[in-house]
Design a protein that fits this description.
Layout: E1 11-14, H1 24-38, E2 43-48, E3 61-65, H2 73-85, H3 87-91, E4 94-97, H4 100-109, E5 119-124, H5 127-134, H6 136-148, E6 151-154, H7 157-166, E7 174-176, E8 199-204, H8 213-221, H9 225-228, E9 231-236, H10 244-253, E10 259-263, H11 267-276, E11 279-282, H12 296-303, E12 308-311, E13 326-329, H13 334-346, H14 348-363, H15 367-375
Parallel strand pairs: 1-2, 1-4, 2-3, 4-5, 5-6, 6-7, 8-9, 8-11, 9-10, 11-12, 12-13
Helix pairs in contact: 1-15, 2-4, 4-6, 5-6, 8-10, 8-13, 12-14
Length: 376
């Protein structure tokens, strides 16, 4: 089945997570919208509210809705009202739901036979598959939504397997749409890297148990004193509401590690921080239903020529080439994780070779390829 790209058959991308929100899903939705325009689609994006000062010159029509960008009932109710109000336009269009927020609203509306878009396209990232399957009501609604979908995408083979295991109704509809670098991301030459007095180990990601900050700190604490003295650990990311950041700071206080917390930073500041880093660490772990489906920051680090240390969980092995662009350790083997850090700290030539391989790896990922796989 091919999709109509004519102006009379627009593509509506509806999301709760879009710029200026930060994070992998927000980047994914923005870049898939841009890539769809590049393919010739007439694209209209519906997204959460944002200050006018944060808007860009978008290559597509942008409609900001009175949504905070959360999954609470009031937010879903407002989106549901907008969908019903615009049902005549949507009924004969392609509607793309690239994340779980609008999927939940659509699940309820799918009960109305008069409200079924001509083409419904979904993207699953990982954690929502677990959540939807665990709850009997969501499980039934998700199965119905998948049956009505024309196409479905996942970012990794791992997420695809998870989806088909939990919802076999998706079989025959699933396409792979890997993440890539932001379209405005510039891969800088290695000569731009700044030399540090200490070896900087960097983590970029919200402070959440799934991101594995504590596992990283514990591994660094386990290093021999001569290695601990050589390193500085930098943490970039917003504070959590679940007290996880307090746990991190408490563990740091018990150690002799040098740790810097940067909080949220702009894209420009983040590029500078990447260029100061020597090793990138995001030792993700499964946390309840929350899994690491891909991790765009791994590609960002690779694009900056930084070798990676991580855990072989979820879809991480599809973002990091173990032994080539970084080193992955099993999540239940802390000694192996510490050994991975020690190996890179002690070997500048290995850091350099993995960093160079990472640049080449990052260039291979392109949003146009993902959009073509899903919308061709």
């Amino acid at each position: 089945m091919s999709l109509d790209r004519s102006a009379s058959h627009p593509l509506f991308l509806i999301t709760h997570e879009f710029y200026p929100r930060r994070g992998g899903i927000a980047t994914f939705t923005e870049e898939m919208a841009k890539a769809s325009v590049h393919m010739g689609y007439d694209v209209e994006v519906w997204a959460q509210s944002a200050p006018e000062s944060k808007e860009k010159a978008w290559p597509f029509r942008m409609r900001r809705l009175p949504l905070r960008g959360t999954h609470d009932f009031s937010c879903l109710l407002r989106l549901g009202r907008e969908l019903i109000r615009e049902r005549r336009r949507l009924r004969y269009a392609t509607v793309y739901l690239p994340e779980p927020g609008p999927m939940i609203a659509m699940m309820v509306l799918q009960g109305l036979k008069t409200f079924r878009p001509k083409h419904l396209i979904l993207t699953f990232h990982g954690s929502e598959i677990q959540r939807f399957h665990r709850n009997p009501i969501y499980r039934a609604l998700t199965r119905r939504l998948i049956r009505h979908a024309s196409r479905i995408s996942t970012l990794t083979h791992y997420t695809q397997r998870l989806l088909l295991d939990r919802f076999p109704e998706a079989r025959g509809k699933v396409f792979l749409t890997p993440g890539a670098l932001r379209s405005d991301f510039a891969i800088v030459p290695d000569g731009n890297r700044q030399m540090n007095r200490r070896i900087v180990i960097l983590t970029v990601g919200r402070l959440h148990p799934r991101k594995g900050h504590i596992e990283t700190i514990q591994a660094l604490m386990a290093l021999a004193p001569q290695f601990r003295r050589q390193i500085e650990y930098w943490i970039v990311g917003s504070q959590s509401k679940n007290g996880y950041d307090e746990r991190i700071r408490g563990l740091v206080a018990q150690s002799d590690l040098s740790v810097r917390f940067f909080g949220d930073v702009s894209d420009e500041e983040l590029d500078i921080i990447y260029d100061r880093a020597d090793i990138f660490a995001m030792t993700s772990v499964d946390h309840g239903d929350s899994v690491e489906g891909f991790g765009l920051v791994y590609l960002e680090a690779s694009a900056h020529g930084i070798p990676i240390v991580g855990h072989s969980v979820g879809g991480v092995a599809e973002a990091v080439m173990d032994g080539v662009t970084g080193i992955l350790a099993p999540p239940d083997r802390p000694a192996q994780l510490a050994a991975a850090f020690e190996r890179l700290i002690a070997d500048p030539s290995l850091r350099r070779s993995m960093g160079e391989a990472g640049r080449a790896w990052a260039r291979r990922h392109q949003w146009t390829k993902s959009a073509e796989a899903l919308f061709r």
